[in-house]
Amino acid sequence: MQSFKRLMGGLGAAAIALALTAGTAAAGQFDGVTVRIGTFGGKWRDIVEANVAKAFEAEGGKIEFVLGQPANNMAKLIAARGQEPPFDVLETMDNLLPQLAAGGFLDTIDLTKIPNIAKVDKAFYDDKKVMVWITQEGIVYNKAKFAEAGIPAPTRYADLANPKLKGKVSLPDISAGGAMPAIVGMSHEAGGGEADIGPGLELVKTIGPASFWSSSSNLQTQLASGDVWAAAAQAGNVQRLKGQVDLAIAFPPVAGKSGVLKQGYLVKIKGAKNAAAAEWIINAFLSDQMQVATLTAGGQVPVSGPALAKLRENPDYGFLRLSPDQLAGMYSIDFGKVNEAAYVQKWNRSITR
Amino acid sequence: MAKLHHRTPERIAAALVLAVAYTVLLGPILFVIVSSFDYGQRAYVVFPPERFTLESYWRIPDRYWDALWNSLRIAGLCTLASCLIGIPAAIGIVRSNIPGKAAILAVFRAPMQIPAVVSGVAFLQLYYALGAATGWYAVGSFTGMVIAHVFAATPYVVGTLVGVLQRFDQTVEEAALVLGASRLGTLWQVTLPMLKPGIFAGALYAFMISFSEVPMSVFLAGSHQVTFPVEVFHSMQFDFEPTILAISTIVTVLSLVVVWAVQRVVGLDKFVKTGAAD
Q1: What ipTM does the predicted assembly reach?
Q2: Stated pTM of the model
Q3: Which segment of the chain is annotated as a signal peptide (chain A) (predicted)?
Q4: Which of 1.10.10.10, 1.10.3720.10, 3.30.930.10, 1.10.1740.10 would CATH assign to domain B62-273?
Protein backbone atom coordinates (compact mmCIF):
# COMPACT_ATOMS: atom_id res chain seq x y z
CA MET A 1 0.00 0.00 0.00
CA GLN A 2 2.82 2.26 0.99
CA SER A 3 4.51 1.54 -2.35
CA PHE A 4 1.30 2.19 -4.23
CA LYS A 5 0.92 5.57 -2.48
CA ARG A 6 4.48 6.43 -3.33
CA LEU A 7 3.90 5.40 -6.93
CA MET A 8 0.72 7.48 -7.19
CA GLY A 9 2.42 10.36 -5.48
CA GLY A 10 5.29 10.15 -7.92
CA LEU A 11 2.95 9.97 -10.88
CA GLY A 12 0.98 12.91 -9.55
CA ALA A 13 4.13 14.98 -9.12
CA ALA A 14 5.27 14.02 -12.60
CA ALA A 15 1.88 15.01 -14.04
CA ILE A 16 2.02 18.38 -12.29
CA ALA A 17 5.59 18.95 -13.48
CA LEU A 18 4.57 18.01 -17.03
CA ALA A 19 1.60 20.34 -16.90
CA LEU A 20 3.77 23.16 -15.61
CA THR A 21 6.39 22.52 -18.28
CA ALA A 22 3.72 22.43 -20.96
CA GLY A 23 2.25 25.60 -19.55
CA THR A 24 5.61 27.31 -19.66
CA ALA A 25 6.26 26.17 -23.22
CA ALA A 26 2.82 27.29 -24.30
CA ALA A 27 3.51 30.68 -22.75
CA GLY A 28 6.55 31.21 -25.00
CA GLN A 29 5.58 34.13 -27.21
CA PHE A 30 7.87 33.00 -30.04
CA ASP A 31 7.21 29.28 -30.16
CA GLY A 32 8.63 27.88 -33.39
CA VAL A 33 9.93 31.26 -34.55
CA THR A 34 13.42 31.36 -36.04
CA VAL A 35 15.18 34.68 -36.50
CA ARG A 36 18.36 34.94 -38.54
CA ILE A 37 20.93 37.52 -37.46
CA GLY A 38 23.74 38.63 -39.71
CA THR A 39 26.56 39.32 -37.29
CA PHE A 40 30.25 38.91 -36.50
CA GLY A 41 31.73 35.53 -35.69
CA GLY A 42 34.11 34.31 -33.02
CA LYS A 43 33.76 35.49 -29.50
CA TRP A 44 31.08 38.07 -30.36
CA ARG A 45 28.76 35.32 -31.55
CA ASP A 46 29.34 33.53 -28.21
CA ILE A 47 28.42 36.72 -26.32
CA VAL A 48 25.22 37.17 -28.33
CA GLU A 49 24.44 33.48 -27.91
CA ALA A 50 24.82 33.68 -24.11
CA ASN A 51 23.02 36.97 -23.55
CA VAL A 52 20.43 37.23 -26.31
CA ALA A 53 19.85 33.83 -27.94
CA LYS A 54 19.38 32.03 -24.62
CA ALA A 55 16.73 34.54 -23.56
CA PHE A 56 15.02 34.21 -26.93
CA GLU A 57 15.03 30.41 -26.59
CA ALA A 58 13.29 30.81 -23.24
CA GLU A 59 10.50 32.49 -25.19
CA GLY A 60 10.29 29.47 -27.49
CA GLY A 61 12.25 30.97 -30.40
CA LYS A 62 15.54 30.21 -32.01
CA ILE A 63 18.31 32.41 -33.40
CA GLU A 64 20.38 31.39 -36.40
CA PHE A 65 23.65 33.21 -37.00
CA VAL A 66 24.72 34.21 -40.49
CA LEU A 67 28.33 35.10 -39.82
CA GLY A 68 30.39 37.62 -41.68
CA GLN A 69 31.84 41.07 -41.67
CA PRO A 70 29.11 43.67 -42.32
CA ALA A 71 30.41 44.26 -45.86
CA ASN A 72 30.24 40.53 -46.66
CA ASN A 73 26.74 40.30 -45.26
CA MET A 74 25.75 43.32 -47.28
CA ALA A 75 26.99 41.55 -50.42
CA LYS A 76 24.65 38.67 -49.55
CA LEU A 77 21.81 41.11 -49.11
CA ILE A 78 22.45 42.73 -52.48
CA ALA A 79 22.61 39.32 -54.19
CA ALA A 80 19.26 38.42 -52.65
CA ARG A 81 17.58 41.64 -53.78
CA GLY A 82 13.92 41.08 -54.61
CA GLN A 83 13.90 37.73 -52.85
CA GLU A 84 13.79 36.56 -49.26
CA PRO A 85 16.68 38.28 -47.47
CA PRO A 86 19.38 36.00 -46.00
CA PHE A 87 18.76 37.39 -42.51
CA ASP A 88 16.07 39.28 -40.61
CA VAL A 89 18.29 41.44 -38.44
CA LEU A 90 21.73 42.73 -39.44
CA GLU A 91 24.46 43.98 -37.16
CA THR A 92 26.31 46.58 -39.16
CA MET A 93 28.67 49.49 -38.92
CA ASP A 94 27.97 53.18 -39.32
CA ASN A 95 29.83 53.37 -42.66
CA LEU A 96 27.41 50.97 -44.37
CA LEU A 97 24.20 52.63 -43.21
CA PRO A 98 23.95 55.10 -46.12
CA GLN A 99 24.28 52.24 -48.63
CA LEU A 100 21.75 50.10 -46.78
CA ALA A 101 19.31 53.01 -46.72
CA ALA A 102 19.90 53.94 -50.36
CA GLY A 103 19.39 50.31 -51.39
CA GLY A 104 16.02 50.25 -49.66
CA PHE A 105 17.05 47.39 -47.39
CA LEU A 106 15.99 48.95 -44.11
CA ASP A 107 12.61 48.22 -42.61
CA THR A 108 10.94 50.52 -40.11
CA ILE A 109 11.51 49.51 -36.50
CA ASP A 110 8.54 49.89 -34.17
CA LEU A 111 10.33 51.61 -31.31
CA THR A 112 7.33 51.16 -29.02
CA LYS A 113 8.17 47.44 -29.05
CA ILE A 114 11.64 48.18 -27.70
CA PRO A 115 11.19 49.29 -24.08
CA ASN A 116 14.96 49.32 -23.46
CA ILE A 117 15.29 52.13 -26.00
CA ALA A 118 14.33 54.48 -23.15
CA LYS A 119 17.80 53.78 -21.68
CA VAL A 120 19.57 55.01 -24.80
CA ASP A 121 20.42 58.58 -25.83
CA LYS A 122 17.97 59.79 -28.49
CA ALA A 123 20.88 60.66 -30.78
CA PHE A 124 21.77 56.97 -30.98
CA TYR A 125 18.66 55.65 -32.73
CA ASP A 126 15.75 56.34 -35.00
CA ASP A 127 13.08 54.15 -36.58
CA LYS A 128 15.54 52.66 -39.08
CA LYS A 129 18.51 51.85 -36.88
CA VAL A 130 19.42 51.31 -33.24
CA MET A 131 22.98 51.75 -32.01
CA VAL A 132 24.02 48.90 -29.71
CA TRP A 133 27.73 49.53 -29.17
CA ILE A 134 30.52 51.92 -29.96
CA THR A 135 34.27 51.86 -30.06
CA GLN A 136 36.33 54.84 -28.99
CA GLU A 137 39.11 55.60 -31.42
CA GLY A 138 42.25 57.56 -30.69
CA ILE A 139 45.95 56.93 -30.09
CA VAL A 140 46.84 53.81 -28.11
CA TYR A 141 50.34 54.08 -26.65
CA ASN A 142 52.74 52.20 -24.41
CA LYS A 143 53.17 54.35 -21.29
CA ALA A 144 56.37 52.65 -20.10
CA LYS A 145 58.14 52.91 -23.47
CA PHE A 146 57.14 56.56 -23.83
CA ALA A 147 58.47 57.32 -20.33
CA GLU A 148 61.73 55.44 -20.98
CA ALA A 149 62.32 57.35 -24.20
CA GLY A 150 61.32 60.67 -22.64
CA ILE A 151 58.44 61.15 -25.05
CA PRO A 152 55.46 63.12 -23.72
CA ALA A 153 52.04 61.45 -23.95
CA PRO A 154 50.54 62.13 -27.39
CA THR A 155 47.71 64.62 -27.67
CA ARG A 156 47.44 64.89 -31.47
CA TYR A 157 47.99 62.50 -34.36
CA ALA A 158 50.92 64.68 -35.49
CA ASP A 159 52.73 63.73 -32.27
CA LEU A 160 53.28 60.30 -33.83
CA ALA A 161 55.75 61.94 -36.20
CA ASN A 162 58.17 62.40 -33.28
CA PRO A 163 61.60 61.15 -34.50
CA LYS A 164 61.97 59.16 -31.27
CA LEU A 165 59.01 57.07 -32.42
CA LYS A 166 60.58 56.21 -35.76
CA GLY A 167 59.89 52.55 -36.50
CA LYS A 168 57.53 52.22 -33.53
CA VAL A 169 54.22 53.50 -34.89
CA SER A 170 51.46 51.52 -36.56
CA LEU A 171 48.48 52.98 -38.40
CA PRO A 172 45.45 51.09 -39.69
CA ASP A 173 45.55 49.78 -43.22
CA ILE A 174 42.76 51.10 -45.43
CA SER A 175 41.12 47.65 -45.24
CA ALA A 176 41.09 47.60 -41.43
CA GLY A 177 38.04 48.44 -39.35
CA GLY A 178 39.88 51.32 -37.70
CA ALA A 179 40.89 52.98 -40.97
CA MET A 180 37.93 55.31 -41.36
CA PRO A 181 38.11 56.91 -37.88
CA ALA A 182 41.89 57.34 -38.15
CA ILE A 183 41.81 58.84 -41.66
CA VAL A 184 38.94 61.17 -40.84
CA GLY A 185 40.51 62.14 -37.49
CA MET A 186 43.88 62.88 -39.09
CA SER A 187 42.24 64.73 -41.97
CA HIS A 188 40.40 67.06 -39.61
CA GLU A 189 43.56 67.66 -37.60
CA ALA A 190 45.52 68.48 -40.74
CA GLY A 191 42.94 70.90 -42.08
CA GLY A 192 40.75 68.59 -44.16
CA GLY A 193 37.74 66.50 -43.29
CA GLU A 194 35.45 63.78 -44.59
CA ALA A 195 35.16 65.51 -47.95
CA ASP A 196 38.90 66.13 -48.23
CA ILE A 197 41.20 63.45 -46.85
CA GLY A 198 44.26 64.72 -48.75
CA PRO A 199 45.74 66.49 -45.70
CA GLY A 200 45.15 63.37 -43.61
CA LEU A 201 47.02 61.20 -46.09
CA GLU A 202 49.87 63.71 -46.09
CA LEU A 203 49.98 63.38 -42.31
CA VAL A 204 50.16 59.59 -42.68
CA LYS A 205 53.19 60.05 -44.93
CA THR A 206 54.78 62.49 -42.48
CA ILE A 207 54.33 60.04 -39.62
CA GLY A 208 55.83 57.27 -41.79
CA PRO A 209 54.53 54.34 -39.74
CA ALA A 210 56.59 51.18 -39.37
CA SER A 211 53.54 49.09 -40.21
CA PHE A 212 49.91 49.25 -41.23
CA TRP A 213 47.83 46.93 -39.05
CA SER A 214 45.06 44.96 -40.69
CA SER A 215 43.27 43.39 -37.72
CA SER A 216 43.07 43.87 -33.96
CA SER A 217 44.92 40.63 -33.28
CA ASN A 218 47.68 41.71 -35.66
CA LEU A 219 48.05 45.03 -33.82
CA GLN A 220 47.80 43.49 -30.36
CA THR A 221 50.64 41.09 -31.15
CA GLN A 222 52.84 44.02 -32.18
CA LEU A 223 51.88 46.08 -29.12
CA ALA A 224 52.45 43.14 -26.78
CA SER A 225 55.87 42.34 -28.22
CA GLY A 226 56.99 45.97 -27.89
CA ASP A 227 57.57 46.29 -31.65
CA VAL A 228 54.93 49.00 -31.72
CA TRP A 229 54.76 51.75 -29.08
CA ALA A 230 51.88 53.76 -30.49
CA ALA A 231 49.03 53.18 -32.90
CA ALA A 232 45.92 54.87 -34.16
CA ALA A 233 43.40 52.37 -32.84
CA GLN A 234 40.46 51.80 -30.55
CA ALA A 235 40.42 51.76 -26.77
CA GLY A 236 39.48 48.08 -26.64
CA ASN A 237 43.15 47.27 -27.25
CA VAL A 238 44.02 48.76 -23.86
CA GLN A 239 41.53 46.43 -22.20
CA ARG A 240 42.60 43.32 -24.14
CA LEU A 241 46.29 43.79 -23.26
CA LYS A 242 45.69 44.75 -19.64
CA GLY A 243 48.16 42.92 -17.41
CA GLN A 244 50.52 42.30 -20.33
CA VAL A 245 51.46 45.81 -21.45
CA ASP A 246 50.77 49.11 -19.73
CA LEU A 247 48.80 50.90 -22.44
CA ALA A 248 46.83 54.13 -22.39
CA ILE A 249 44.68 55.90 -24.93
CA ALA A 250 44.69 59.56 -25.92
CA PHE A 251 41.78 61.16 -27.74
CA PRO A 252 43.07 63.84 -30.15
CA PRO A 253 40.92 66.88 -30.92
CA VAL A 254 38.71 66.36 -33.97
CA ALA A 255 36.57 69.22 -35.28
CA GLY A 256 35.92 70.76 -31.86
CA LYS A 257 35.44 67.38 -30.19
CA SER A 258 37.91 64.75 -29.08
CA GLY A 259 38.38 61.19 -30.25
CA VAL A 260 36.24 59.49 -32.87
CA LEU A 261 33.33 57.13 -32.32
CA LYS A 262 32.85 54.06 -34.47
CA GLN A 263 29.31 52.83 -34.14
CA GLY A 264 27.67 49.44 -34.37
CA TYR A 265 23.97 49.27 -35.21
CA LEU A 266 21.19 46.76 -35.48
CA VAL A 267 18.82 47.18 -38.39
CA LYS A 268 15.69 45.30 -39.37
CA ILE A 269 15.84 44.06 -42.93
CA LYS A 270 12.91 44.70 -45.24
CA GLY A 271 11.13 41.43 -45.88
CA ALA A 272 11.99 40.04 -42.44
CA LYS A 273 9.44 37.35 -41.64
CA ASN A 274 9.05 37.94 -37.94
CA ALA A 275 8.99 41.63 -37.27
CA ALA A 276 7.89 41.26 -33.66
CA ALA A 277 10.66 38.79 -32.93
CA ALA A 278 13.23 41.02 -34.63
CA GLU A 279 12.22 43.90 -32.38
CA TRP A 280 12.32 41.66 -29.32
CA ILE A 281 15.90 40.76 -30.22
CA ILE A 282 16.93 44.38 -30.71
CA ASN A 283 15.47 45.03 -27.28
CA ALA A 284 17.48 42.14 -25.85
CA PHE A 285 20.70 43.63 -27.26
CA LEU A 286 19.91 46.69 -25.13
CA SER A 287 19.25 44.68 -21.96
CA ASP A 288 21.53 45.50 -19.04
CA GLN A 289 23.02 42.00 -19.12
CA MET A 290 23.97 42.17 -22.80
CA GLN A 291 25.13 45.78 -22.63
CA VAL A 292 27.46 45.09 -19.70
CA ALA A 293 28.80 41.96 -21.42
CA THR A 294 29.43 44.06 -24.53
CA LEU A 295 32.28 45.70 -22.64
CA THR A 296 33.32 43.15 -20.06
CA ALA A 297 33.47 40.23 -22.52
CA GLY A 298 33.56 41.92 -25.90
CA GLY A 299 35.66 45.04 -25.42
CA GLN A 300 33.14 47.40 -27.00
CA VAL A 301 31.48 50.27 -25.20
CA PRO A 302 27.75 49.90 -24.53
CA VAL A 303 25.21 52.63 -25.20
CA SER A 304 22.55 52.11 -22.56
CA GLY A 305 22.55 54.48 -19.57
CA PRO A 306 22.30 51.91 -16.75
CA ALA A 307 25.11 49.76 -18.23
CA LEU A 308 27.34 52.80 -18.67
CA ALA A 309 26.59 53.91 -15.10
CA LYS A 310 27.42 50.48 -13.72
CA LEU A 311 30.68 50.29 -15.70
CA ARG A 312 31.70 53.81 -14.62
CA GLU A 313 31.91 52.45 -11.08
CA ASN A 314 34.60 50.00 -12.16
CA PRO A 315 38.05 51.63 -12.06
CA ASP A 316 39.31 49.07 -14.59
CA TYR A 317 37.43 51.01 -17.25
CA GLY A 318 38.71 54.41 -16.20
CA PHE A 319 40.52 54.81 -19.52
CA LEU A 320 37.18 54.86 -21.37
CA ARG A 321 34.68 57.65 -21.76
CA LEU A 322 31.55 56.29 -20.22
CA SER A 323 29.40 59.27 -19.26
CA PRO A 324 26.74 60.69 -21.59
CA ASP A 325 28.54 64.06 -21.64
CA GLN A 326 31.84 62.45 -22.55
CA LEU A 327 30.23 60.43 -25.32
CA ALA A 328 28.54 63.54 -26.67
CA GLY A 329 31.97 65.17 -26.74
CA MET A 330 33.36 62.58 -29.17
CA TYR A 331 33.26 63.02 -32.92
CA SER A 332 30.85 60.99 -35.07
CA ILE A 333 31.86 60.69 -38.70
CA ASP A 334 29.50 62.26 -41.22
CA PHE A 335 29.18 59.36 -43.65
CA GLY A 336 27.05 61.48 -45.95
CA LYS A 337 30.33 63.13 -46.98
CA VAL A 338 32.39 59.94 -47.13
CA ASN A 339 33.17 58.30 -50.45
CA GLU A 340 34.84 55.03 -49.45
CA ALA A 341 35.77 54.00 -52.99
CA ALA A 342 37.51 57.33 -53.52
CA TYR A 343 39.26 56.96 -50.16
CA VAL A 344 40.69 53.60 -51.24
CA GLN A 345 41.86 55.02 -54.58
CA LYS A 346 43.54 57.99 -52.91
CA TRP A 347 45.11 55.72 -50.31
CA ASN A 348 46.47 53.39 -52.99
CA ARG A 349 47.87 56.31 -54.98
CA SER A 350 49.57 58.12 -52.12
CA ILE A 351 50.29 55.54 -49.40
CA THR A 352 50.54 52.03 -50.90
CA ARG A 353 52.81 53.32 -53.64
CA MET B 1 92.00 14.06 -49.01
CA ALA B 2 91.87 16.97 -51.44
CA LYS B 3 88.57 15.57 -52.72
CA LEU B 4 87.14 15.59 -49.17
CA HIS B 5 88.17 19.22 -48.67
CA HIS B 6 86.48 20.06 -51.94
CA ARG B 7 83.28 18.39 -50.84
CA THR B 8 83.04 19.86 -47.35
CA PRO B 9 82.08 23.43 -48.38
CA GLU B 10 79.54 21.98 -50.81
CA ARG B 11 78.05 19.87 -48.07
CA ILE B 12 77.91 22.81 -45.70
CA ALA B 13 76.22 24.92 -48.37
CA ALA B 14 73.74 22.13 -49.12
CA ALA B 15 73.01 21.70 -45.42
CA LEU B 16 72.42 25.45 -45.07
CA VAL B 17 70.04 25.51 -48.03
CA LEU B 18 68.22 22.52 -46.59
CA ALA B 19 68.01 24.16 -43.16
CA VAL B 20 66.59 27.36 -44.66
CA ALA B 21 64.09 25.38 -46.72
CA TYR B 22 62.93 23.38 -43.69
CA THR B 23 62.71 26.51 -41.56
CA VAL B 24 60.55 28.26 -44.15
CA LEU B 25 58.33 25.21 -44.64
CA LEU B 26 58.05 23.97 -41.09
CA GLY B 27 58.69 27.16 -39.09
CA PRO B 28 55.15 28.52 -39.16
CA ILE B 29 53.69 25.10 -38.34
CA LEU B 30 56.04 24.58 -35.42
CA PHE B 31 55.34 28.12 -34.25
CA VAL B 32 51.60 27.40 -34.09
CA ILE B 33 52.05 24.01 -32.44
CA VAL B 34 54.43 25.24 -29.74
CA SER B 35 52.42 28.43 -29.08
CA SER B 36 49.24 26.39 -28.63
CA PHE B 37 50.58 25.15 -25.30
CA ASP B 38 50.68 28.63 -23.80
CA TYR B 39 48.25 29.48 -21.00
CA GLY B 40 45.43 31.90 -20.47
CA GLN B 41 43.04 34.11 -22.38
CA ARG B 42 45.56 36.14 -24.28
CA ALA B 43 44.91 38.56 -27.07
CA TYR B 44 48.08 37.63 -28.92
CA VAL B 45 50.43 34.75 -29.66
CA VAL B 46 53.26 34.07 -27.19
CA PHE B 47 56.32 32.25 -28.50
CA PRO B 48 57.82 30.41 -26.81
CA PRO B 49 55.11 29.82 -24.19
CA GLU B 50 55.77 31.16 -20.72
CA ARG B 51 54.64 27.84 -19.30
CA PHE B 52 53.32 24.74 -21.01
CA THR B 53 49.70 23.73 -20.45
CA LEU B 54 46.83 22.04 -22.30
CA GLU B 55 44.42 24.75 -21.11
CA SER B 56 43.64 25.99 -24.63
CA TYR B 57 42.83 22.46 -25.74
CA TRP B 58 40.23 21.96 -23.00
CA ARG B 59 38.58 25.26 -23.87
CA ILE B 60 38.13 24.68 -27.62
CA PRO B 61 34.55 25.85 -28.26
CA ASP B 62 32.03 23.49 -29.83
CA ARG B 63 31.71 25.80 -32.85
CA TYR B 64 35.21 24.80 -33.98
CA TRP B 65 34.40 21.10 -33.73
CA ASP B 66 31.11 21.63 -35.59
CA ALA B 67 32.90 23.60 -38.29
CA LEU B 68 35.64 20.97 -38.55
CA TRP B 69 33.04 18.23 -39.01
CA ASN B 70 31.32 20.35 -41.67
CA SER B 71 34.60 20.87 -43.49
CA LEU B 72 35.45 17.17 -43.43
CA ARG B 73 32.01 16.25 -44.83
CA ILE B 74 32.14 18.94 -47.51
CA ALA B 75 35.74 18.17 -48.51
CA GLY B 76 35.03 14.44 -48.59
CA LEU B 77 32.05 14.77 -50.88
CA CYS B 78 33.82 17.40 -52.96
CA THR B 79 36.76 15.03 -53.45
CA LEU B 80 34.47 12.23 -54.57
CA ALA B 81 32.53 14.45 -56.97
CA SER B 82 35.69 16.07 -58.35
CA CYS B 83 37.14 12.63 -59.11
CA LEU B 84 33.92 11.42 -60.72
CA ILE B 85 34.02 14.46 -63.01
CA GLY B 86 37.78 14.84 -63.34
CA ILE B 87 38.87 11.27 -64.13
CA PRO B 88 36.64 10.70 -67.18
CA ALA B 89 37.24 14.29 -68.28
CA ALA B 90 41.02 13.83 -68.19
CA ILE B 91 40.85 10.48 -70.02
CA GLY B 92 38.53 12.01 -72.63
CA ILE B 93 40.73 15.05 -73.15
CA VAL B 94 43.94 13.06 -73.59
CA ARG B 95 42.64 10.01 -75.44
CA SER B 96 39.88 11.33 -77.71
CA ASN B 97 40.30 12.97 -81.09
CA ILE B 98 37.64 15.59 -80.54
CA PRO B 99 38.48 19.00 -81.98
CA GLY B 100 39.32 21.88 -79.62
CA LYS B 101 40.94 19.73 -76.94
CA ALA B 102 43.16 22.61 -75.92
CA ALA B 103 40.13 24.84 -75.50
CA ILE B 104 38.33 22.20 -73.42
CA LEU B 105 41.38 21.83 -71.20
CA ALA B 106 41.53 25.61 -70.83
CA VAL B 107 37.90 25.62 -69.73
CA PHE B 108 38.68 23.00 -67.08
CA ARG B 109 41.60 25.08 -65.86
CA ALA B 110 39.65 28.36 -65.82
CA PRO B 111 38.48 28.10 -62.20
CA MET B 112 42.14 28.14 -61.13
CA GLN B 113 42.66 31.46 -62.90
CA ILE B 114 39.58 33.25 -61.61
CA PRO B 115 40.15 34.95 -58.22
CA ALA B 116 38.23 32.92 -55.67
CA VAL B 117 36.52 36.03 -54.27
CA VAL B 118 35.10 36.72 -57.72
CA SER B 119 33.92 33.11 -57.95
CA GLY B 120 32.32 33.47 -54.52
CA VAL B 121 30.33 36.54 -55.53
CA ALA B 122 29.40 34.88 -58.84
CA PHE B 123 28.12 31.76 -57.06
CA LEU B 124 26.19 33.92 -54.63
CA GLN B 125 24.43 35.72 -57.50
CA LEU B 126 23.92 32.47 -59.41
CA TYR B 127 22.37 30.69 -56.44
CA TYR B 128 19.93 33.50 -55.79
CA ALA B 129 18.99 33.66 -59.49
CA LEU B 130 18.53 29.88 -59.44
CA GLY B 131 16.46 30.19 -56.28
CA ALA B 132 14.20 32.78 -57.90
CA ALA B 133 13.68 30.50 -60.91
CA THR B 134 13.27 27.17 -59.14
CA GLY B 135 12.42 27.91 -55.52
CA TRP B 136 15.50 25.99 -54.36
CA TYR B 137 18.03 28.19 -52.60
CA ALA B 138 21.55 26.80 -52.51
CA VAL B 139 23.05 29.67 -50.49
CA GLY B 140 23.82 28.44 -47.00
CA SER B 141 23.09 24.82 -47.93
CA PHE B 142 25.42 21.85 -47.77
CA THR B 143 24.79 21.06 -51.46
CA GLY B 144 25.49 24.62 -52.52
CA MET B 145 28.78 24.62 -50.68
CA VAL B 146 29.83 21.27 -52.18
CA ILE B 147 29.00 22.42 -55.73
CA ALA B 148 31.12 25.55 -55.34
CA HIS B 149 34.01 23.54 -53.90
CA VAL B 150 33.79 21.02 -56.76
CA PHE B 151 34.10 23.97 -59.15
CA ALA B 152 37.34 24.99 -57.41
CA ALA B 153 38.77 21.48 -56.92
CA THR B 154 38.03 19.66 -60.20
CA PRO B 155 40.74 21.48 -62.21
CA TYR B 156 43.36 20.04 -59.89
CA VAL B 157 42.13 16.48 -60.49
CA VAL B 158 42.02 17.06 -64.25
CA GLY B 159 45.40 18.78 -64.32
CA THR B 160 47.09 16.02 -62.33
CA LEU B 161 45.61 13.19 -64.38
CA VAL B 162 46.23 14.86 -67.75
CA GLY B 163 49.91 15.05 -66.78
CA VAL B 164 49.95 11.35 -65.87
CA LEU B 165 48.00 10.27 -68.95
CA GLN B 166 50.27 12.16 -71.32
CA ARG B 167 53.19 10.03 -70.08
CA PHE B 168 51.11 6.85 -69.97
CA ASP B 169 52.55 3.88 -71.89
CA GLN B 170 49.57 2.83 -74.02
CA THR B 171 51.30 -0.34 -75.26
CA VAL B 172 50.39 -1.95 -71.92
CA GLU B 173 46.71 -1.43 -72.70
CA GLU B 174 47.21 -2.68 -76.26
CA ALA B 175 48.85 -5.81 -74.86
CA ALA B 176 45.85 -6.42 -72.60
CA LEU B 177 43.47 -6.02 -75.53
CA VAL B 178 45.56 -8.32 -77.74
CA LEU B 179 45.53 -10.93 -74.99
CA GLY B 180 41.74 -10.90 -75.02
CA ALA B 181 40.70 -8.42 -72.36
CA SER B 182 37.58 -6.39 -73.05
CA ARG B 183 37.77 -2.57 -73.21
CA LEU B 184 36.00 -2.27 -69.85
CA GLY B 185 38.21 -4.98 -68.36
CA THR B 186 41.31 -3.20 -69.64
CA LEU B 187 40.11 0.06 -68.14
CA TRP B 188 39.33 -1.57 -64.81
CA GLN B 189 42.29 -3.94 -64.54
CA VAL B 190 45.05 -2.09 -66.36
CA THR B 191 44.38 1.61 -66.93
CA LEU B 192 42.89 2.61 -63.56
CA PRO B 193 45.46 0.70 -61.45
CA MET B 194 48.24 2.38 -63.39
CA LEU B 195 46.54 5.73 -62.88
CA LYS B 196 46.04 5.08 -59.16
CA PRO B 197 48.88 7.28 -57.93
CA GLY B 198 47.63 10.11 -60.15
CA ILE B 199 44.08 9.63 -58.94
CA PHE B 200 45.22 9.69 -55.31
CA ALA B 201 47.28 12.78 -55.98
CA GLY B 202 44.34 14.53 -57.65
CA ALA B 203 41.98 13.46 -54.88
CA LEU B 204 44.40 14.71 -52.24
CA TYR B 205 44.66 18.06 -54.01
CA ALA B 206 40.87 18.27 -54.30
CA PHE B 207 40.49 17.54 -50.59
CA MET B 208 43.09 20.13 -49.64
CA ILE B 209 41.57 22.80 -51.89
CA SER B 210 38.11 22.22 -50.44
CA PHE B 211 39.26 21.91 -46.84
CA SER B 212 41.21 25.17 -46.90
CA GLU B 213 38.82 27.17 -49.08
CA VAL B 214 37.86 30.57 -47.59
CA PRO B 215 37.09 33.28 -50.20
CA MET B 216 34.09 31.53 -51.74
CA SER B 217 32.86 29.92 -48.54
CA VAL B 218 32.69 33.28 -46.76
CA PHE B 219 29.90 34.28 -49.15
CA LEU B 220 28.14 30.93 -49.33
CA ALA B 221 28.16 29.82 -45.70
CA GLY B 222 24.79 30.05 -44.01
CA SER B 223 23.95 29.56 -40.39
CA HIS B 224 24.61 25.81 -40.48
CA GLN B 225 27.29 25.25 -43.10
CA VAL B 226 30.18 27.24 -41.68
CA THR B 227 33.44 25.57 -42.66
CA PHE B 228 36.44 25.33 -40.37
CA PRO B 229 38.69 27.93 -42.06
CA VAL B 230 35.74 30.34 -42.31
CA GLU B 231 35.02 29.90 -38.60
CA VAL B 232 38.67 30.62 -37.79
CA PHE B 233 38.67 33.59 -40.18
CA HIS B 234 35.58 35.09 -38.51
CA SER B 235 37.08 34.57 -35.07
CA MET B 236 40.33 36.24 -36.06
CA GLN B 237 38.44 39.16 -37.55
CA PHE B 238 36.80 39.87 -34.23
CA ASP B 239 39.52 38.92 -31.79
CA PHE B 240 42.36 36.49 -31.33
CA GLU B 241 41.65 33.41 -29.23
CA PRO B 242 44.40 31.00 -28.11
CA THR B 243 41.98 28.14 -28.79
CA ILE B 244 42.51 28.85 -32.50
CA LEU B 245 46.10 27.66 -32.09
CA ALA B 246 44.95 24.54 -30.26
CA ILE B 247 42.37 23.50 -32.86
CA SER B 248 44.82 24.38 -35.65
CA THR B 249 47.39 22.07 -34.06
CA ILE B 250 44.86 19.26 -33.97
CA VAL B 251 44.06 19.82 -37.66
CA THR B 252 47.78 19.84 -38.47
CA VAL B 253 48.28 16.54 -36.68
CA LEU B 254 45.26 15.08 -38.50
CA SER B 255 46.75 16.26 -41.80
CA LEU B 256 50.02 14.53 -40.99
CA VAL B 257 48.08 11.35 -40.27
CA VAL B 258 46.44 11.64 -43.71
CA VAL B 259 49.83 12.12 -45.36
CA TRP B 260 51.12 9.08 -43.48
CA ALA B 261 48.06 7.10 -44.65
CA VAL B 262 48.68 8.14 -48.25
CA GLN B 263 52.28 7.03 -47.89
CA ARG B 264 51.11 3.66 -46.61
CA VAL B 265 48.47 3.16 -49.32
CA VAL B 266 50.12 4.66 -52.39
CA GLY B 267 53.59 5.73 -51.41
CA LEU B 268 54.66 9.34 -51.54
CA ASP B 269 57.42 8.46 -53.99
CA LYS B 270 54.77 7.38 -56.50
CA PHE B 271 52.76 10.47 -55.66
CA VAL B 272 55.74 12.62 -56.61
CA LYS B 273 56.35 10.60 -59.77
CA THR B 274 52.83 11.34 -61.03
CA GLY B 275 53.99 14.81 -61.84
CA ALA B 276 51.36 16.20 -59.50
CA ALA B 277 53.36 19.36 -59.29
CA ASP B 278 53.08 19.92 -63.03
Answers
A1: 0.75
A2: 0.81
A3: 1-27
A4: 1.10.3720.10
